[in-house]
Structure formats: structure tokens, C-alpha cells
């Protein structure tokens, strides 16, 4: 097994794309212009092949081995645990998963929660586990977009959602009452790639790790 | 009515079924060559038997129900525990070591993340009653030869040791609750979480470094030397010495070039007690074969005995073969035998049984046809040859791309058999 094999890496569209692009450039693995990524979803370079996919699809590409490595937010990994290795905290794309309620709501700490809490979220698994660990009965309403709207129209008591600056929450009249977890971008690896093509995959991993340490 | 079947359970159509069956037969044949005896354990086991052998997660995924007498039973999710029950029960007077192999479907209530199947096929071998490196190496070498036997050309066997990890966990100076968290993080292959856990602890030891470098602790014999320089506990040192023995034996078995030592192998550490291994084929994101030493299991059934074994995931073998550069083809029917009238049918049945005696695949038509209609039927069957019997003495033989010829039936059979041989 030679060290010159191409390593494929899945990177997410959306908020982490610029960070991932910066990291690939700093590490010297691939300089990709924003314009280039707008045109194609598969970019081949000398040592790496970059696959651009939706953030939630990154674990699937890696778990099935279509990509050797993936860059993905920890928030996605909470929801879709798989058989991959989580190798490096890349220190960008920082955000928090919070429980937010309307400003006017009486809900605050656990002692103020109703017997059955109703919560809207795109993170049903994580939210469920968190409430369960606190002995709180919860009804999860799974939504796919504009979660902030749900408590304002009385659909739910609160929301569990991701926030970086807190601005969207404030603009929608919501305040944070609890933090479920902190997320940053992670480097994940397919278990077989790590074992059957160790040298080439590990060399890309170390370069990305080094680049993320310099940036962070 | 659902013609598609129950989700997670699926039909295997002729091509896939044939590939799977052939792979299963090659595996069992290889195991037989090593002296492993075939046993068949039932699809259903008593829950109290399975409770003894399986972990909480495995038990949760079983299809459970009650039989007519009110006992809770389950469909098997693996077959090592049933084999252990057999060895401690009906085979308790059989002298150890016992070499046993098995094949069959296993069922889980959860769809596997890959392929979305709840029913999968496994072929496994167990060597029960033998401890030590020679037994460990035998089972690993058998697993390697099994992968070859199915027609997988490129493969790799990763060999590790459960005791290496246990020794590190004993020696590492951490509070018990942190140790539990370390196990959880490793089980989830979460090295970012692991790093965070170990960063907060004041005492940095060589064991810390080893844990953090777990996925990179791989290679040839040099990795054993590197690790030996770092560990300072007896359990890990013993594990390293055993791995060296096993590696040497595997070289003598002639498979040294496909073996990689993997000290960071992460498996079910509550179950495995010694050497563990995984077999990987090309371009498939997960292991095709998995196994290792489980010296604790038999004692739970009242017949303490060391044991080691492995299981091959037949669905993955079949997927690998189907997606190979030259995928296997469904073997063709050799002869379609059509006929007209009572004399023709008698001739057709005779030709059919002669061809089958030569090991050929022959289909005899179910209705009388004209010669023209017979050619259409031949197309539909997709056979290599058409033999048309209109009377008892001669038949018309057509092969693809050749002119039809009238011959006595024995001559057609001889020519076909000759062509095939």
C-alpha cells in the first residue's frame, strides 16, 4: 500500500464551508476558490479529492466509506452516531445547542418546567436524551426549519436549537435558559480507511490537525 | 397485502442467492478442511440462555416472544452463545478441544446502519477448549483462508489484544468515574472527547499518551517494541509478548504479509479476553470478519473452557463479490429441451436425465410445441442449447450462433458433455 493514494474528504455546505476551505488551504492540501465550489461538488487535487455535501450527509459518506475523512459539526454527530472515528477538534464553527423560551415565559430552571414539556427542535435525539437525563417528561415536535417561530405561535413551550451569536433568538423574542452542549467542527474518519490505508489517511489527518492548531 | 415483504427483511433473487450460497459453501468447505465439524443450532433460543451470554445492548435488539407454554424465547442475533450452550450441554462429554462451525441467518429488531437489514447471514467457526497462541493463530489463519476461499483477492487482517487495553486502564491514574467516561468515549471512537477527559487530569503518564494515540498504534513488529517501551504494567506487557508469538506463528502459517498489528483495536472489551482480530476486504467501509478469544463465556454455562472463534458476515462478502471488477454471473442453464407428442416427451425426459448425469443444467418443457414455438421458448429460458425432440430416434440440436443439426440423442449428450468438460 503506497503513500501516494488519493484521500477523499467530505466537507459540508453552509456555515462550516468557509472554515473547511480555509483549513484545506492552510494545510496545503487543496486551495479551492469559492467560485470553484459553487460550480462543482467534486474537486480533484493531487493528493485529495474533495466532496461537497449537505452537513447532515457527511456522516453517511464517511460511514459507508465513500469518503475516507469528513469535516462535520459536533451537533450533527450528536444526532447521527455512527461507526466512524472522531479524531480532531478543528476549533472553528463554534456554537451552542440551547433551550430557549419566549421572553415573557415563566419557564426558567428545571423547577419551573411543566409536568410534560413540549419542545420543537431539529435535534430530537439529543433533546430527548438531555431531558431524560434530568427526569423530565418531554414531547418532541420535530421541525425542519424556522424553529424559532414555534413558541411564538403557541405550538411549543420552548425550542432546542443551535445558536452562534444568539442574534436570531433575540430577534424572535426568545431567551436562553439552558445550554445542552457546545459544538465545533470535527474531523471524522472511516474505520476501514484508517486501517487499510493508514499511511496516506494519517498523513492527511496530521496536516489538518496541525493547520487547525495554527488557526486556533 | 404487502408483496414487498416486512421492512428490513428481503428476498434474495437468483443471482444474489447463488452468490451467497456459493460463498457459504466455500467458507464451510474451508472450515471442514481444518477439521471443524458443522453444527446446526436452532433459530429460536430460550431467553434465559441468551441472557447468560449476551450484553445489555445485544439483548435489547432481540426479537422476543413467548412460546405456547409461556416461556420467553427469542430469535438468535448471533450463534456463538448457542454453540457455547451446546458445548456445555449436549456435547458436555465430548473431549476438548472441539472445533465447530455453523452457518445461518441471524435476526435483529434494529436495521443495521448499512444495507438496512434486520436479517443477515453469518458463517462462523469456534475452537473451544484450547488456550494459548497456537490456538489463537490457528483461528486467525483460518479466517484469512476463509476470505481467500470466497474469492476475495485483496484483504487484510488486523490483530490486537483486549488485555493490552485492560492493562492500560488498570495502570492509568484516574478516578473511577473518569475511567468509565474514558471507556465510553473509546467505545464511541470519540477521540476528541477522550482528549478533553485526559486533559483535565493532573497526572500525565505514558498510559495517557498511549490512550490518546490509540488509532495510530498500528503496524508491524516495530509497533510492539514501541509500545513495550511505554507500558509499565504486567497485563499489557503479557499481551504484547503474546501478540509477538501469534505474529510469528501467522508468518509460519504463510499469512504474515496480510497481518497488521493493531494495538488500538476497539471492540467489546467486556466480552473478549485475549487476542482479537478483524478482516477487511477492499473498498468496503467495515470489517467482513471479526473474532477473538472469549475465555469467560463457557463458564457461565457451567463448563469452564477457554475459547476463540470468529464470524464472517456473508452479506458483506456477497456485496464485495457483486461489486468486484468482474462480478460473478448467474450460471446459465445448459440445455432447454422442447418436444412434440408422446414419443417426443419420452425422448426429452431421457435426454434431460442423461445431461444431468453429466452435471449439466437441463430444463424440459412442460408442453408440446412446434419447432418454431420451441425457438421462442428457448429464448425465454436463456439456455445455451436447444434440443428439440419430435420422435424417439433423432433430435434437432441448436447451439447459439450455429446451424441446427439432426443427431441421435446419445451423440448430442456426448457432444454437450465434451464441450462443457
Summarize the structure.
With 216 residues, chain A is α/β, with parallel strands linked by helices. Chain A has helices at residues 17-26, 34-39, 58-63, 74-79, 124-133, 149-152, 167-171, 191-196, 198-215; strands spanning 7-12, 42-44, 48-53, 69-73, 85-89, 95-102, 116-121, 137-142, 158-163, 174-183, 185-189. Helix content of chain A is 33%, strand content 31%.
Structural class of chain A: alpha/beta
Morphology of chain B: elongated
What is the strand content of chain B? 15-25%
Number of DSSP helical runs of chain B:
15
Proportion of residues in helical segments of chain A: 25-40%
Strand tally of chain A is 11
Strand order of the largest sheet of chain A: 2-3-1-4-11-5
- The name of the CATH superfamily of the largest domain in chain B reads Bira Bifunctional Protein, Domain 2
Detailed description of the structure:
- The complex is a heterodimer of chains A (216) and B (421).
- The longest helix of chain A is centred in the C-terminal third of the chain and has 18 residues, at 198-215.
- Chain A has helices at 17-26, 34-39, 58-63, 74-79, 124-133, 149-152, 167-171, 191-196, 198-215, and strands spanning 7-12, 42-44, 48-53, 69-73, 85-89, 95-102, 116-121, 137-142, 158-163, 174-183, 185-189.
- With 216 residues, chain A is α/β, with parallel strands linked by helices.
- In chain A, the strands form 2 sheets. Chain A has a 6-stranded mixed sheet. In chain A, strands 8-7-9-6-10 form a 5-stranded mixed sheet.
- Chain A is built from 9 helices and 11 strands.
- Chain A is elongated and about 60 Å long.
- The two termini of chain A are 33 Å apart.
- Chain B has 421 residues and is α+β, with helices and mostly antiparallel strands.
- Chain B folds into 3 domains: 1-152 and 288-330, BirA Bifunctional Protein, domain 2 (2-Layer Sandwich), CATH 3.30.930; 156-280, Bira Bifunctional Protein, Domain 2 (BirA Bifunctional Protein, domain 2); 335-420, Rossmann fold (3-Layer(aba) Sandwich).
- Helix content of chain B is 41%, strand content 20%.
- In chain B, the strands form 3 sheets. A 9-stranded mixed sheet of chain B has the order 1-5-6-12-11-10-7-9-8, sandwiched between helices. In chain B, strands 14-13-15-16-17 form a 5-stranded mixed sheet, with helices on both faces. In chain B, strands 2-4-3 form a 3-stranded antiparallel sheet.
- In chain B, helix 5 packs across helix 11 and helix 13 packs parallel to helix 15.
- Chain B is elongated.
- The two termini of chain B are 47 Å apart.
- The chains are: A alpha/beta (216), B alpha+beta (421).
- Chains A and B meet through strand 5 and helix 8 of A and helix 8 and strand 8 of B.
Amino acid at each position: 500500500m503506497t503513500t501516494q493514494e488519493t484521500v477523499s474528504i467530505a466537507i459540508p455546505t453552509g456555515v462550516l464551508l468557509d472554515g473547511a476551505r480555509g483549513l484545506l488551504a492552510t494545510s496545503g492540501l487543496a486551495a479551492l476558490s469559492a467560485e470553484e465550489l459553487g460550480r462543482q461538488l467534486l474537486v480533484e487535487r493531487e493528493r485529495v479529492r474533495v466532496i461537497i455535501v449537505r452537513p447532515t450527509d457527511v456522516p453517511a459518506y464517511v460511514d459507508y466509506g465513500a469518503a475516507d475523512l469528513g469535516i462535520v459539526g459536533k451537533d450533527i454527530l450528536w444526532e447521527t452516531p455512527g461507526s466512524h472515528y472522531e479524531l480532531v477538534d478543528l476549533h472553528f464553527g463554534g456554537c451552542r445547542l440551547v433551550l430557549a423560551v419566549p421572553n415573557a415565559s415563566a419557564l426558567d430552571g428545571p423547577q419551573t418546567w411543566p409536568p410534560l414539556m413540549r419542545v420543537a427542535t431539529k435535534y430530537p435525539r439529543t433533546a430527548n436524551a438531555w431531558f431524560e437525563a434530568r427526569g423530565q417528561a418531554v414531547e418532541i415536535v420535530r421541525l425542519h426549519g424556522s424553529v424559532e417561530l414555534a413558541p411564538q405561535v403557541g405550538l411549543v413551550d420552548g425550542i432546542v436549537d443551535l445558536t452562534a451569536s444568539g442574534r436570531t433568538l433575540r430577534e424572535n423574542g426568545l431567551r436562553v435558559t439552558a445550554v445542552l452542549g457546545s459544538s465545533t467542527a470535527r474531523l471524522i474518519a472511516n474505520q476501514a480507511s484508517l486501517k487499510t490505508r493508514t499511511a496516506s489517511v494519517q498523513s492527511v489527518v496530521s496536516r489538518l490537525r496541525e493547520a487547525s492548531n495554527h488557526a486556533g | 397485502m404487502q408483496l414487498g415483504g416486512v421492512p428490513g427483511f428481503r428476498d434474495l433473487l437468483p443471482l444474489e442467492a447463488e452468490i451467497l450460497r456459493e460463498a457459504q459453501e466455500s467458507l464451510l468447505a474451508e472450515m471442514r478442511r481444518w477439521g471443524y465439524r458443522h453444527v446446526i443450532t436452532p433459530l429460536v433460543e430460550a431467553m434465559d440462555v441468551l441472557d447468560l451470554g449476551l450484553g445489555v445492548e445485544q439483548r435489547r435488539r432481540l426479537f422476543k416472544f413467548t412460546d405456547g407454554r409461556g416461556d420467553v424465547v427469542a430469535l438468535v442475533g448471533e450463534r456463538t452463545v448457542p454453540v457455547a450452550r451446546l458445548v456445555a450441554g449436549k456435547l458436555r462429554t465430548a473431549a476438548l478441544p472441539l472445533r465447530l462451525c455453523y452457518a445461518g441467518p441471524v435476526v435483529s429488531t434494529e436495521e443495521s446502519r448499512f444495507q438496512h437489514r434486520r436479517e443477515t447471514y453469518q458463517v462462523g467457526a469456534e475452537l473451544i477448549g484450547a488456550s494459548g497462541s497456537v490456538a489463537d493463530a490457528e483461528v486467525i489463519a483460518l479466517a484469512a483462508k476463509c476470505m481467500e476461499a470466497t474469492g476475495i483477492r485483496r484483504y487484510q487482517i488486523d490483530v490486537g489484544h483486549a488485555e493490552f487495553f485492560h492493562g492500560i486502564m488498570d495502570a492509568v491514574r484516574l478516578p473511577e468515574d473518569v475511567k468509565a467516561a474514558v471507556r465510553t468515549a473509546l467505545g464511541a471512537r470519540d477521540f476528541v472527547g477522550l482528549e478533553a477527559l485526559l486533559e483535565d487530569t493532573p497526572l500525565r503518564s505514558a498510559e495517557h499518551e498511549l490512550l490518546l494515540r490509540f488509532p495510530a498504534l498500528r503496524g508491524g513488529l516495530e509497533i510492539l517494541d514501541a509500545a513495550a517501551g511505554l507500558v509499565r504494567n504486567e497485563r499489557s506487557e503479557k499481551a504484547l509478548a503474546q501478540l509477538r508469538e501469534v505474529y510469528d506463528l501467522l508468518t509460519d502459517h504463510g499469512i504474515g504479509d496480510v497481518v497488521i498489528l493493531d494495538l488500538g483495536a476497539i471492540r467489546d472489551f467486556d466480552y473478549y479476553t485475549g487476542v482479537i482480530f478483524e478482516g477487511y476486504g477492499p473498498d468496503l467501509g467495515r470489517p467482513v470478519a471479526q473474532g477473538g478469544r472469549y475465555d469467560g463465556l463457557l463458564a457461565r454455562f457451567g463448563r469452564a473452557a477457554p475459547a476463540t472463534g470468529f464470524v464472517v458476515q456473508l452479506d458483506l462478502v456477497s456485496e464485495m463479490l457483486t461489486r468486484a471488477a468482474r462480478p460473478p454471473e448467474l450460471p446459465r442453464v445448459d440445455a432447454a429441451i422442447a418436444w412434440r407428442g408422446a414419443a417426443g416427451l419420452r425422448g426429452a425426459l431421457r435426454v434431460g436425465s442423461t445431461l444431468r448425469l453429466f452435471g449439466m443444467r437441463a430444463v424440459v418443457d412442460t408442453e408440446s410445441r412446434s419447432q418454431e414455438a420451441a425457438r421462442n421458448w428457448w429464448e425465454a429460458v436463456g439456455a445455451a442449447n436447444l434440443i428439440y425432440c419430435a420422435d424417439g430416434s433423432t433430435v434437432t440440436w441448436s447451439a447459439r450462433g450455429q446451424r441446427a443439426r439432426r443427431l441421435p440423442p446419445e451423440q448430442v449428450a456426448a457432444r454437450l458433455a465434451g464441450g462443457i468438460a
